[in-house]
Amino acid sequence: MFNLPEHNIHLSATADNKQQAIEMAANALVQDGYVAAGYLQGMLAREQQTSTFLGNGIAIPHGTLETRDLVKKTGVQIFQFPNGIEWGEGNTAYIVIGIAARSDEHLALLRQLTHVLGDDDTAASLVTLQDKAEFRAILMGEKKEPALQQDFITLDVETNSALTLTAINAGKLEAKSAVDARFVSQVIADQGLVIGNGIVLNDNAQGNQFNAVAFSRAKQAFHNANGEAVQAVITVAAVDDQLNSVLARLLTAETQTALLQASSAEQIIALLDGKSVETDNAQSTTSAVQQVVGTFTVRNEHGLHARPGALLVSTVKPFAAKVTVENLDRPTAAVNAKSLMKLVALGVVAGHRLRFTAEGDDAKAAIEAIGKAIADGLGEGVGITPKEPDSIEEVTSAVAAPSTASTAASSGEQVEGTFSLKNEHGLHARPCALLVQEAKKFQSAITVENLDRQSAAVSAKSMMKVVALGALKGHQLRFVAKGEDAQQAIDAIGAAIAAGLGE
Asked: Is 115 known to be catalytic?
């Protein structure tokens, strides 16, 4: 974590134009000993190459590769312009973050900043904020997250398993750092408590980072092993008693019924917050969506810094399809591929493989355009040769298919393998991550099922779905791979399990 003294934050600043704003940032960097004189020219040159506007009213001017030798130490100078600065192409910057970084340190710095500033409401709150301490706390991720967030709500899940709903909740909470891996592994192993009207409540004493409530609901009700009707799971992370009022509301039949009838995340949050809302009597239905998945290797020698990142985002934005991207080599949660801020936060360096998922009528065209842009070097030319081929796969639904997977490759053989899990504590987060990482190395479609729990087959490339299998030591896992490298995939997975998956 980089150091951000409060005196590096300049509130209520004024400037006539973009160049003046950049000069102010550069002068502050020089005065505090971060850079030598002349760094300003690099910042202005970078702006000529490509705009450093990230979105959400935030710009991050920084130097070029040629001026890195002028950087004495990594740091930032932050200027707040409440009246806004015209940043070109119709964009207005309210927060200008002047960056000085040696080597690729700025990528780690940007990941920390963008993790916080990627939220529209958070970024907007900084425009007029006059408290430096609070401003700094928001930037450094030290400000408490709200317990009730739309990101924690998942509706209309195609499943008949409370374990799947629990895994979704746990994954959402972990992605926002509300819980850690200890919480995830323990809550997955817990059956939870049926509190009534088809709602299951679960929590865990370990790994809670801040108060948060996650809610997931199946498209239709189902019965658990005890014959009880279940349709929704509520997972609670608690560090104190601030959520007691929410828990008390969950015990009322009125709230439970309303939660099952609510048609949006906004309504769910309002109900958990004790507000009355009008809900639909009938459950909403959704149809399968066209989904196209593309996996591509980044060829750029310096990874996805501002310039290639901006070109990639501009490639994605013209398409109506919803497009997300995840970094398979970190790994990271999927983020909106149309947000430069969130893209930069993935911390992509040369050779990293990115998986794009597009949903919508023009999904295939979007993925093909992305693949071509990356193969062409995103405006910088090709710096490296990929070790693995790029791939594009069409599927018919976002839900994992059974072992006769229609999502499998259109050609190639099908190979099966059944392996006994040797890990003392089962497939908790660490060995699960290694297993998924192994599966992702191959182009074949790979599914896995837990024969001891008679689970449905799920994608072996989804950590959340593999964790949801609830695999314990000695459980038999059946893998099915279909594609040109199916045999190699099954052999590699078997070898990884035999070796203990890193344990």
From this structure: no
